[in-house]
Amino acid sequence: MVVRYQDSVIRASKSTLHSNISSLFVAEVYACLEATKLGISMGIESVTIMGDSKTVINKCQSTTKDKSVIETIIQDIRSNRSCF
């Protein structure tokens, strides 16, 4: 992931290796979670996360819960939103 401020200059980047990721879909959710954690650790007041999966983006923006494999991670992302 890459952190850019409004001037588009790259301020930070991070990559994380997970050994038990079952699909690209799950990897995308973990990337979103890591993005929120990085924003919190950098003390950023506002974060815009962009991704390839419209489903992941919609689930992060929604308040409804479901029984999907990624729901626990989505809940972590939602709880991190309160930090921004």
TrEMBL record:
InterPro entries: RNaseH-like_sf, RNaseH_domain, RNaseH_sf. It comes from the Eukaryota. It holds the Pfam family RVT_3. Residues 7-84 form the RNase H type-1 domain. Gene3D superfamilies: Ribonuclease H-like superfamily/Ribonuclease H (3.30.420.10). GO terms for molecular function: nucleic acid binding; RNA-DNA hybrid ribonuclease activity. This is RNase H type-1 domain-containing protein. It comes from Gossypium schwendimanii.
